[in-house]
Amino acid sequence: MPSGTILVADDDAAIRTVLNQALSRAGYAVRLTSNATTLWRWVSSGEGDLVITDVVMPDENVFDVLPRIKKLRPDLPVLVMSAQNTFMTAIKASEKGAYEYLPKPFDLKEMISIVGRALEEPKLRRPEPEADGGENMPLVGRSPAMQEIYRVLARLMQTDLTVMINGESGTGKELVARALHDYGKRRNGPFVAINMAAIPRDLIEAELFGHEKGAFTGAQHRSSGRFEQADGGTLFLDEIGDMPMEAQTRLLRVLQQGEYTTVGGRTPIQTDVRIIAATNKDLRQLINQGLFREDLYFRLNVVPIRIPPLRERIEDIPDLVRHFFALAEKEGLPPKQMDQSALNMLRQYRWPGNVRELENLVRRLTALYPQDVISESLLEHELSQPTVTSLDEETGEPVNLGASVERYLNTYFETFGDALPPPGLYHRILREVEYPLIGAALAATRGNQIKAAELLGVNRNTLRKKIRDLDVQVLRSAR
């Protein structure tokens, strides 16, 4: 167990007491203060082996003090706490040189673990903090699920690691990719996005890598591809699960060798791009179906980030509504508010279209209704509009699970033509059904495995084994 003196700065006496007790039990010496001035005096005099501090202090914002601390003592780890819990708070903490950012309330065991890890690490000089990135809010939400995403993004900002973003349609995958670019080390380079599902299959390679004049019918001149356009910046490959196999092979070669050739070209071109991929599909299922290369998956899935659907972060709905009202007002629409009963109704809705659906609803309410305050009755009228239901094409009846599976299998077999799928189809299909079933049960119970096991009618140990074997993401509600 590492030892040392921990300097704790927080104007909340209860927080100071809790941290003092926890750190003392862990074997550390602790010094407590309620202001930034005393903290700076201790640090400047050489005291302390690690700092734990809140952002907002009575006399000074710690983000103003942190650059001075890092300049004077670059090897001193600083853990920043905050109850503001926004994306920009996490990014600022990273930019100013903080070792770690923790949103309040935090887990004491996690805090002690981070302290131990920080004190055990070699004392290496950290890079000077970057300039302030401004107060524009690219991501909105203070829920536990979003807090974890903010922390991961903050750690990734000064790296070029390849990132795979997974999430349902409408959750904001491109926003996360843009945030990684706009606040990262490649911010001065281009951000180039390409949607694999929106490009004809026979044109994807030319779109990605460019083509030479005469490379194919209609190629009247040389054209640069997205890799060339993104040189020095970030290439965002959206809906990567829809990339055809032949293009996957060429992409894998680029990732392995760092170079590519244009369609019809022979001279290798060096590439300098950061790859961020995104999908709303389960790529592991596509691998089992022979539709996605496993080696490409591991090349892209260096840092996986799962964006939660809106139904798993309903605590963020009020913030999102205010954010979208503010955006609409900036675009010239009249200012609006939403009363509490209407917000409560939004929390009960399932949001199949996720954040995009909420944004469209807010814009529609702003444009169509003259009332300054959106009431529950107005909202009920909008949410009661007919929604699209999946129907059987022949009978017009709703499609049940059995019919859906049968249709899926028919389409699946068609993709192999006269050949047969790889062996093991029975277990693959069961696994594909189990994964969304267990995921839906965990989402409905807010990550409570006891309730989820009861809902499914299985033993809790069986559920735990399934979660581990299927690698199901577990959302844990805030305590």
Structure write-up:
The chain is an alpha/beta fold and 479 residues long. It has 4 domains: 5-136, Rossmann fold, CATH 3.40.50.2300; 159-306, P-loop containing nucleotide triphosphate hydrolases (Rossmann fold, 3-Layer(aba) Sandwich), CATH 3.40.50.300; 310-383, Helicase, Ruva Protein, domain 3; 407-470, Arc Repressor Mutant, subunit A (Orthogonal Bundle). Helices cover 44% and strands 12% of the residues. It contains 20 helices and 14 strands. It has helices at 13-25, 36-44, 62-72, 87-95, 108-120, 144-156, 173-182, 204-209, 226-229, 245-257, 283-288, 294-300, 317-330, 340-348, 354-368, 376-383, 401-414, 425-444, 449-456, 460-470; strands at residues 5-9, 29-33, 50-54, 78-82, 100-103, 163-166, 191-195, 234-238, 259-260, 269-270, 274-279, 303-306, 337-338, 373-374. The strands form 4 sheets. It has a 5-stranded parallel β-sheet with strand order 2-1-3-4-5, with helices on both faces. Strands 7-8-11-6-12 form a 5-stranded parallel β-sheet. Strands 9-10 form a two-stranded antiparallel sheet. Helix 14 (340-348) runs parallel beside helix 16 (376-383). The protein is globular. The relative contact order is 0.07.
